[in-house]
């Protein structure tokens, strides 16, 4: 980082690239409600363990490139994509036998994504910070960077948790949000196998949560790569030995609750529209003197609260059932296996190619017209007569 040529590189041209491997059906920890009559409660989850790799790249200004998703398989399949593909129009997709990147994919990512999408308006050098994976250290990869005036900075082995901005503040919230979305899907689809379609839906939402400008800039600052601060990684709790007891990360400050829409009554008191029985009871306590409530009125309020709770439970159960049935119906709908043919001039597939090839596959008609000669047959002529001696 002390190289004079690298010092002149603008923060927008300083980029970090890394791959994150995500299992389709693995989710995080959480609280489970179970019957008190049982000693333990089993939580079902999907058995899908297919690996999908997401390649992300960020710069020091808090901006990110479109991701590259590497599926495990031989070809990218059309049925892996959800019906609504508009959110993924800038994404890139490919497949490998292991679900991980390789030399060919890494070089294609450099040629088709990084170089054209980060090309500056005026000729100036760029900096690419990445780990020492074998696909990043091939002769072709480094020659291509040299030809395009791209400086390569390889992080030392086993130091990504200290020096890699993506690992410090981006991948963790993305994976946490992905597991949260996956847990919701598990409830809705009744632990059915997680599909590539579900992965795309969950990862898209998780990316909106974790890949924010604030998180990206925090990762660069924590790594000491921008603003350049050598003391930052050296003072990391992962580097320093704890003096007294184990290191405990400081808890984030609690966010004050956001005030809802309030309305005043004739006496200037605030009244909120009750959304549950607990809010009804609070309104009663705040605006009605307990001594003025006679037993019939108290019974009436109790019945109102009970009826409100019962209706809320019914609505919640019915909404969950409807969503679950819609999800199961979508997943059980037969889908034709069709390979998504990539552009011969491109290594990666895009949703634009998916839309272009959609009209090539037409549905089988429900009714097939019979030839004219078959209409002339009668039922007796189609029967055989057998005589047993």
From TrEMBL:
Q: Name one GO cellular component term.
A: nucleus
Query: Which is an annotated Pfam family here?
Result: DDE_1
Name of the protein in question: DDE-1 domain-containing protein
Q: Name one GO molecular function term.
A: DNA binding
Record-annotated DDE-1 domain positions: 52-220
The record's annotation in PANTHER family points to: POGO TRANSPOSABLE ELEMENT WITH KRAB DOMAIN, TRANSPOSON
């Amino acid at each position: 980082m002390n190289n004079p040529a690298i010092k002149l590189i603008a923060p927008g041209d300083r980029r970090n690239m890394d791959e994150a491997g995500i299992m389709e059906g693995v989710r995080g920890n959480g609280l489970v409600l179970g019957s008190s009559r049982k000693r333990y409660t089993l939580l079902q989850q999907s058995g899908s363990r297919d690996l999908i790799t997401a390649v992300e790249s960020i710069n020091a200004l808090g901006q990110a490139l479109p991701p590259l998703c590497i599926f495990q398989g031989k070809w990218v399949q059309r049925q892996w994509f959800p019906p609504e593909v508009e959110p993924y129009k800038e994404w890139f997709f490919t497949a490998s036998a292991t679900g991980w990147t390789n030399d060919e994919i890494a070089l294609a990512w450099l040629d088709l994504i990084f170089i054209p999408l980060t090309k500056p308006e005026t000729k100036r050098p760029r900096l690419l910070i990445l780990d020492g994976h074998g696909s990043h250290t091939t002769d072709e990869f480094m020659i291509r960077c040299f030809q395009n005036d791209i400086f390569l900075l390889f992080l030392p082995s086993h130091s990504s948790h200290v020096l890699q901005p993506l690992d410090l503040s981006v991948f963790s919230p993305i994976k946490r949000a992905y597991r949260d979305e996956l847990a919701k899907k598990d409830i809705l689809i009744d632990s059915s196998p997680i599909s590539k379609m579900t992965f795309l839906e969950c990862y898209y939402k998780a990316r909106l949560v974790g890949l924010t400008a604030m998180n990206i800039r925090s990762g660069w600052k924590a790594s000491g790569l921008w603003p350049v601060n050598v003391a930052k990684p050296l003072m990391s709790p992962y580097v320093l030995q704890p003096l007294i007891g184990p290191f405990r990360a400081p808890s984030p400050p609690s966010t004050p609750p956001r005030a809802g829409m309030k309305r005043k009554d004739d006496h200037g008191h605030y009244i909120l529209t009750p959304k549950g029985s607990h809010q009804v009871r609070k309104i009663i306590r705040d605006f009605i003197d307990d001594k003025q409530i006679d037993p019939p009125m108290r019974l009436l309020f109790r019945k109102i609260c009970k009826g409100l709770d019962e209706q809320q439970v019914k609505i919640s159960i019915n909404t969950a059932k409807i969503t679950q049935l819609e999800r199961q119906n979508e997943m059980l709908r037969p889908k034709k296996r069709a390979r998504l043919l990539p552009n011969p001039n491109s290594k990666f597939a895009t949703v634009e190619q998916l839309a272009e090839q959609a009209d090539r596959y037409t549905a089988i008609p429900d009714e097939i017209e019979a030839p004219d000669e078959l209409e002339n047959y009668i039922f007796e002529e189609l029967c055989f007569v057998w005589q047993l001696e």
